Write a sequence for this structure.
């Protein structure tokens, strides 16, 4: 038996349960840690499941920041400094990554609080997660306001990219399974994956 919910039914679901339901509808999502540093060189780290590919030329990625109803250290520091990192979450660090979603104070570094290591590379202004196998450094290019729910789409251009040599396949794709990258569902589900088949470019 299937359940049918219309828009009124959905609105009447208890807030947290409704958020969990809607968050799970888009299926499996990317999971990443976003690292930033303030002008005062205080580091922050936060888990995000909204990172998306936006284009390859120029190389752009983006993520959604929730409404600014409370302090959002990540977005505030990105807007100030213009630099941030995106770091893949792996089997070894997912529990620590999840803990970064707790509301730490502005002065407390999530790196230190959860036991992950901030590392700076090649004079890039934001810290990478040393334990992450795929690390991406980005410069802020655009902030897009989503009027429907007061969120922000933050768009960055890839400036630096680090990954193990043995996961780069001949056709250019990264073997993210070999890197032990996890995927997520809803707000608290962490999953490993299994490749079924890599398809060829489709033509009529």
């Amino acid at each position: 038996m299937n359940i049918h919910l219309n828009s009124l039914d959905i609105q009447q679901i208890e807030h947290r349960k409704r958020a969990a339901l809607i968050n799970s509808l888009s299926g499996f999502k990317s999971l990443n840690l976003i690292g930033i540093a303030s002008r005062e060189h205080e580091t922050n780290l936060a888990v995000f499941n909204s990172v998306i590919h936006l284009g390859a030329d120029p190389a752009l990625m983006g993520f959604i920041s929730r409404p600014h109803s409370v302090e959002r250290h990540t977005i505030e520091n990105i807007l100030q400094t213009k630099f941030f990192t995106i770091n893949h979450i792996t089997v070894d660090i997912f529990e620590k990554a999840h803990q970064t979603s707790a509301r730490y104070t502005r002065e407390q570094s999530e790196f230190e609080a959860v036991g992950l290591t901030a590392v700076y590379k090649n004079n890039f202004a934001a810290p990478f997660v040393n334990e992450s196998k795929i690390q991406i450094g980005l410069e802020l290019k655009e902030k897009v306001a989503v009027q429907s729910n007061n969120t922000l789409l933050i768009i960055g251009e890839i400036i630096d990219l680090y990954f193990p040599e043995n996961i780069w396949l001949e056709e250019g794709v990264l073997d993210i399974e070999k890197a032990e990258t996890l995927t997520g569902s809803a707000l608290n589900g962490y999953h490993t994956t299994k490749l079924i088949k890599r398809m060829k470019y489709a033509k009529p």
